[in-house]
């Protein structure tokens, strides 16, 4: 069966701030040829340091920002060709949850009004009473109380606010939710609770997730597949278990060795990542990772872009020396 979401060669270029004041306009290739699929009811974890383009990728898929190129097919529809009506329908089928739900929850609206508003926009619910009943059910489903309906966002903790964001996303019965660093700001124990809630909802409702995080440990237990991004490109993609057991890209190895190892001996290769993330406006040539790569081979790695290639079933890597 066709995947629910299929992204091919997605690109997004931004003019830079300095470019606006100089004659030579510089462009940041925030997303630089990204491809992946997400199956119905599946989770793709997307991981990389800040500035790697993971959030921009998520926003392009929802057309919250316009991609510069490539293709996005969702549920059989060409997302980048949708007219206004089609985009409205897309906004229902694909929802997004942000890192800071507080910033996206209107402080002047009650929780009940916030969740009901999402339904009203998409013409869901027979009338106000019906929507109210649905809101009560949704709040209970995400671990809040129906009587929370009349309260305001500032009356809730970070974890509770994220639950409100989830209830609002669920209110329109989406097929895919982009979780953009959705648990990154939460304490570890609260993180685990919200992750468990998202997993339960997935099992119950058949939701697909694109789960964006900067840390591989966060996505491990929720992802079916994982894509690792570096400076706008996917450098490795694999089934989650395969990625953790047999990482191929030196950058993935570096990210993994930053995670405390619960079982000694589970990972053979431990590498420290040298240096800072390069400026995305002027990324290193060839393999973007070559300035930090412990196994680089020069001049090859500095001059030729490594393309994604299969290294085993369902496992792709972009490295001249691997795969
Ligand atoms: Fe390292 Fe070269 Fe592979 Fe890039 S292509 S990850 S620089 S070995
Ligand atoms: Mg699952």
From TrEMBL:
One of its GO terms (cellular component) is plasma membrane. Residues 5-256 form the ABC transporter domain. Pfam families: ABC_tran (PF00005), oligo_HPY (PF08352). It is a peripheral membrane protein. Keywords: ATP-binding, Nucleotide-binding, Transport. SMART domains: AAA. One of its GO terms (molecular function) is ATP hydrolysis activity. GO terms for biological process: peptide transport; transmembrane transport. Its main location: membrane. The keyword Phosphoprotein does not apply. The keyword Nucleotide-binding applies. Belongs to the ABC transporter superfamily. NCBIfam families: oligo_HPY, PRK11308.1. This is Dipeptide ABC transporter ATP-binding protein. It comes from Frigidibacter albus.
């Amino acid at each position: 069966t066709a995947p629910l979401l299929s992204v091919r060669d997605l690109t997004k270029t931004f003019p830079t701030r300095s470019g606006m004041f100089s004659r030579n306009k510089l462009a940041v290739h925030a997303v630089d040829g990204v491809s992946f699929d997400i199956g119905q009811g599946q989770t793709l974890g997307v991981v990389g340091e800040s500035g790697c383009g993971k959030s921009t990728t998520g926003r392009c898929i929802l057309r919250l920002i316009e991609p510069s190129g490539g293709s996005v097919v969702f549920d059989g529809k060409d997302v980048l060709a949708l007219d206004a009506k089609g985009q409205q329908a897309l906004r229902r089928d694909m929802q997004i949850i942000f890192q800071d739900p507080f910033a996206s929850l209107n402080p002047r609206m009650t929780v009940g009004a916030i969740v009901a508003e999402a339904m009203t926009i998409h013409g869901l619910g027979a009338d106000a009473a019906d929507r109210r009943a649905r809101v009560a059910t949704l709040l209970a489903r995400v671990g809040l109380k129906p009587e929370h309906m009349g309260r305001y966002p500032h009356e809730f903790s970070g974890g509770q606010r994220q639950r409100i964001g989830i209830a609002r996303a669920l209110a329109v019965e989406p097929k895919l939710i982009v979780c953009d660093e959705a648990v990154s700001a939460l304490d570890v124990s609260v993180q685990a609770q919200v992750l468990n809630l998202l997993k339960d909802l997935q099992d119950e409702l058949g939701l697909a997730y694109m789960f964006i995080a900067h840390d591989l440990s966060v996505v491990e237990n929720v992802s079916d597949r994982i894509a690792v991004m570096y400076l706008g490109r996917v450098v490795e993609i694999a089934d989650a278990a395969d990625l953790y057991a047999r990482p191929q890209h030196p950058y993935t190895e570096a990210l993994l060795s930053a995670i405390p190892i619960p079982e000694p001996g589970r990972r053979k290769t431990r590498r420290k990542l040298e240096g800072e993330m390069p400026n995305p406006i002027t990324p290193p040539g060839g393999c973007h990772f070559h300035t930090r790569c412990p196994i680089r081979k020069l001049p090859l790695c500095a001059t030729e872009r490594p393309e994604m290639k299969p290294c085993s079933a369902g496992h792709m890597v972009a490295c001249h020396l691997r795969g």
